[in-house]
Write a structure and sequence with these properties.
Oligomer: single chain
Helix content: over 70%
Number of strands: 0
Order of helices and strands: HHHHHHHHHH
């Protein structure tokens, strides 16, 4: 089921909100430790997606490296990361018209945190292309725990963010299901490996080790597919 990861993600947010509504303010040190632990888990998931390609004979890993270079150039020229941030600010401005209360503020803030990011896109693509939900399951844990923190600080309006999360990630996953019908397994393999490296970059952001502009690297996933499609007839 291509939408399973998205459903679990939305439900995790609601569970986090329910728990957060029953708890008093959570110490900052506890938040940091939990997020660091989850960040390590995200890194391992990303590593598991790329290790087979990196250690296998053949040229697939060189395709992944080339896709990161050319995809990064495309992403920087398009300034995808900056446009995602601008989109978030635009949505925030539009939603502010509906009210300045805590519920509206909590809804806008949490929706942006959960939707405007590379993990939502890469995870939904994985669900649609491979039928695997590891990334979205991990994102569900991250979002669920953060929902506890956000709810304890801003209130139950955080729970409304489950709706845009479901619609946004679900739409990407369904589009990926359609796309998968046109892609061979070797193409999906290099796309997955490239996505794994991006997930490792996201883990560094979660742990605040190094700020990686993962949004600007998103084109690399599709560049990897194009390169592989071109090279398959030549035996690569």
């Amino acid at each position: 089921m291509s939408l399973l990861g998205t459903v679990v993600n939305a439900v995790a947010i609601l569970i986090g909100v329910a728990i957060g509504g029953l708890m008093s303010r959570i110490p900052d040190r506890m938040k940091v430790t939990i997020l660091q632990g989850l960040g390590l888990a995200v890194f391992v998931i990303g590593l598991s997606m790329v290790v087979d390609v990196a250690t296998a004979d053949g040229y697939d890993f060189f395709i992944v490296i080339a896709s990161l270079v050319f995809g990064g150039i495309i992403g920087e020229l398009l300034d995808i990361e900056g446009k995602l941030n601008l989109l978030g600010k635009w949505i925030e401005g539009k939603m502010s018209r509906f009210g300045q209360g805590k519920i509206a503020e909590a809804f806008v803030f949490s929706s942006l945190v959960y939707c405007v990011g590379a993990m939502a896109i890469v995870g939904a693509l994985e669900s649609g292309l491979e039928g695997s939900h590891k990334i979205l399951y991990t994102k569900a844990m991250l979002d669920g725990f953060s929902a506890i923190f956000f709810t304890s600080a801003m209130g139950i309006g955080v729970g409304l963010s489950a709706i845009p999360v479901f619609l946004y990630q679900g739409a990407i996953a369904l589009a990926a299901v359609w796309l998968a019908g046109f892609l061979s397994d070797p193409v999906i393999t290099v796309m997955s490996a490239t996505g794994g490296i991006l997930i490792m970059g996201i883990s560094l952001n979660v742990m605040e080790i190094k700020k990686i502009n993962v949004g600007n690297l998103l084109p690399a996933i599709f560049v990897a597919a194009i390169i592989k499609v071109i090279l398959i007839p030549y035996g690569y």
